[in-house]
TrEMBL record:
Belongs to the yippee family. It comes from the Eukaryota. Transmembrane segments: none annotated. This is Protein yippee-like. The keyword Zinc applies. One of its GO terms (molecular function) is metal ion binding. InterPro entries: Yippee (IPR034751), Yippee/Mis18/Cereblon (IPR004910). Residues 1-58 form the Yippee domain.
């Protein structure tokens, strides 16, 4: 994960950390480390994933495996 970055959005100031894919290192979103506005506190510690940056991986079909 990247270093903490201070950003300002329309909802207030934040300190975030960019989150990258463990496989290809592509940036896929961020996590909120600090939240300035108390109305935004619910975001603390939450991840935001940008869906258009995620790859859809279809798992191989399980064939004849009994559990
Ligand atoms: Zn990746």
């Amino acid at each position: 994960m990247g270093r903490p970055i201070r950003i300002f959005m329309s909802t207030g100031g934040y300190i975030i950390r960019v989150v990258s894919c463990a496989g290809c290192k592509k940036e896929i979103g961020w996590i909120y480390l600090k939240v300035q506005e108390s109305s935004q506190l619910y975001k603390l510690g939450k991840f935001v994933l940008e869906l258009e940056r995620l790859e859809i991986i279809i798992p191989p079909a399980r064939t004849g495996v009994a559990f």
